[in-house]
Protein 1
Amino acid sequence: MKYGEAKEKFIETWGVLGSQWGINKTMAQIQALLLIAPKPLSTDDIMEELAISRGNVNMSIRQLVDWGIVYKKNLAGDRKEYFIAEKDVWKWSHKVGAVRKQRELNPAIELLKEIANSKEIGKTEEEKEFAKQIKELNAFSSQIGDLADKLFLSPRGELLLKLIKMFL
Amino acid sequence: MKYGEAKEKFIETWGVLGSQWGINKTMAQIQALLLIAPKPLSTDDIMEELAISRGNVNMSIRQLVDWGIVYKKNLAGDRKEYFIAEKDVWKWSHKVGAVRKQRELNPAIELLKEIANSKEIGKTEEEKEFAKQIKELNAFSSQIGDLADKLFLSPRGELLLKLIKMFL
DNA sequence: ATAAAGTTTCAGAAAATTTTGAAAGTTCAG
DNA sequence: CTGAACTTTCAAAATTTTCTGAAACTTTAT
């Protein structure tokens, strides 16, 4: 595969992957583009490479910066803003993991906990089944949540992964 | 919290969670409903509980059955089809994990591998940066892929999680 | 065979999400 | 200040995804 083709496919695939995981296509593609760029890119560079509007670039970049996986960079003697990606895959995956767990997993875990601890549920067969399932889900999601924290939220994720690989 | 309220919130939250993770809301809500149901539900039961159309129930249920996390069940003396959820959280999460990894992660892993092994890339600074990033992503995603396999695709996931909890 | 009961399909409607583009806002050199 | 360079905003348009509902199809009891 030639460079041009590989680059195009990589950006395209990263975009598809993103949308399947609830991150929008443009955001994912901009990250992809910045990940492989050897130097900072401006809004105009990104608009041109991905053939998308200024507004779209601006909004997507803002989110990427909010997530902490893209940084603003000012080049001397140039008023334009440039952007670079966090290139350490462990660092940015930690950040994505943190944001997504916080936003998406935690509310569910809290609801499950609250329901699981409710004293008002438990008499009829229907309510018993409900309580039982909620307790199981609660136990499961707390465990997964803990693992996610250890893997993605602590700086030891990489080490942990290596240990798992070594021992299992 | 009272049962009615808890049930409603659970189904609602499960739906939101589903859509954030790329599973559609209705599918997630039907699974939630079946998870806590003490007996099999018919298409009509689901339509009524979730206030959605027959077509929607039919399509969503088909997917859930395809994924292997909901089963058809026929009740004696009744022509209607009934449905029950796989209630073992480990079993259904294995299945969801398998389907999603296969569909969503594997294509990316394969592309990264292919690019990483390509001999045609590597001269200019741009191409070097590209190759370097692809190699890192490849290493990372293969590791995460392996972990996902061990956690979700093998029947030892639960044990593995306990071990991790114990030792780390 | 027929008709009632139940299931599936899918074109179009509705809803949700994403993107555009132009106007408003900001910054800064002169 | 002023205006050129650049960034941000956001209403409306485009696109994508989901849902509906009615017709077609299948199954089964009589």
Protein 2
Amino acid sequence: MMSRNSDLKSRPARTPPLGALKAFTVAARHESFALAAEELHVTHGAISKQIGNLEEILGEALFVRRNRRVFLTDRGRELAMKLSAVFQDLDNAVADFRGNQEPQPLIVSCEPTLCLKFLIPNLADLKSSTGLEVKVLAAGGRIDFRRDHIDLAVRRNDFPIDPQLHVKELAPEFMGMVCAPSVAKILEQHADSVPALHTRSRPEAWQNWRLSQPKSPRFASNVIYEHFYMAIEGAMAGQGVGLASIHMVASDLASGRLQALGPFKPDGTQYLALSASPYKTDTRHLIFIDWLARRMQAHIEKLQDVCHSTE
Amino acid sequence: MMSRNSDLKSRPARTPPLGALKAFTVAARHESFALAAEELHVTHGAISKQIGNLEEILGEALFVRRNRRVFLTDRGRELAMKLSAVFQDLDNAVADFRGNQEPQPLIVSCEPTLCLKFLIPNLADLKSSTGLEVKVLAAGGRIDFRRDHIDLAVRRNDFPIDPQLHVKELAPEFMGMVCAPSVAKILEQHADSVPALHTRSRPEAWQNWRLSQPKSPRFASNVIYEHFYMAIEGAMAGQGVGLASIHMVASDLASGRLQALGPFKPDGTQYLALSASPYKTDTRHLIFIDWLARRMQAHIEKLQDVCHSTE
DNA sequence: CATCATAAGTGAGTTTTCCTCACGCAGTTA
DNA sequence: TAACTGCGTGAGGAAAACTCACTTATGATG
């Protein structure tokens, strides 16, 4: 009951011959060996043998031969799905290399909250000011450029960065205390009646804040949110005082839904743009990074106003 | 011999031999023919010839031969990037098919505003209630499952759906007028002093609304936002009255940042989950769709409260 | 500086893979 | 029933891929 592939000599799990896989995807697309043969400029016998060979290697049937036709099995269709995507990628890769390809939208990976509070709302601006088409993939933590087909990732350098990657600094992180305007008034009198809002994804945030800002008020209690986004929502709803990144609450501060309690301070980390391709062959990367860096710098400059207004 | 030679000239862009491409990616990874030869269990001569052949087909050098080493050219590196990703995909596809592969996070494509106001904020809940890891790709309009490597797409059926796709209905769309609570008070007296907020991405929204709700008030003027998200922001900031989907403003209504003006009404469109794989081989799809449908249904049920409170 | 080791290019010859051809088979159409 | 269609198969052959042996070029070594 281990693997039934293992009874095929001592061949552990090497990938089947590429030609056979290619032949299979074409045959699967037509559900016909004859048409596949025509497309590949060979005889139907060639296709038949390639696929028979592949089935033997994989140890299971990919087609059901019935009457004078062939039908994909469910498993065969499953494989065909995956493979046809891969071979299409391959054709695109080669065509792209040869230069006959229109530019694809850039895919940018970004942690969910930054995505939510900053990137996506500004996509329309990006499009209109640079003409760049961007798709955003909300995904925190580790990055796998290959698997997720990401062009760029935006991350903070609070974890070790793969030295293979190409790194560009965007802007420093600035953290600060925020709350709803109504809560700010209460705080002036009864500071200890308001809870501090914590986030599970940045558990050490308040602790670090207190280390660098010892004068900041003590709060009544602690409320823990599952997600950074929730904490910001909570703060807006008057649940307490949150500790937030300027880049995530810039628009909420601007609209007055949130109010800053004292100045925002750098926490030592930086936002970075990470790219798998170390060469600046692609201008779109540069355009996007430039736009993003400017935007983030603008947040920080505006910050002066925010701070003065409450100090 | 005729078929081969006859299309030599008319061979504009056929993909190079797969073996040569494979050999190239391995050689590129090592920047060494000898190591590549070892990995592929052939002699270095075989690699040398495969790559020479590939360079001839492509019509440009991929390696610079210098000293007793080979170095990738920039172009060669560019090609190697693309190809190594593809071949890794291929290995994954086969390994996945054979069953030796851990489950990957689901990638869901979704229009930006729904992403923003509903999906991403609820990702943490999804994770904790189903254990499912999901990444969200914010991308409106046409869907290319292949190119974007999407597992599922969430869309409204306001455009023709590719009949090849597997479709599951999630919930009907409900539209309604919303504004900031402060604006609601003003409206009771001076309905015509408040503008209606339009969105460029759904230009016909107000018109359709008026057709089905002839009694709804006329507003002073029209403000057009570039993006649906902006219109909602505008409404929250007291800029006027927006026309919004219940699924996008559910949380803002719940928190009181927005207020409904009269009942929400179905606009005839549905939210759909689209999948490229027509067979329910993947339970994760079902889990996600089930979760999403329940969530959206909950919005609609809650709607009764919202409506009564203002009628 | 001669010598050795290493890495790659090359031409001839060989092995392997893949393809074609011709035919058989079963079901479908006329 | 005969003709046709689409696939499977075995034998033989073409093409692709590989090996081998040798060459070149260049660092490293004593």
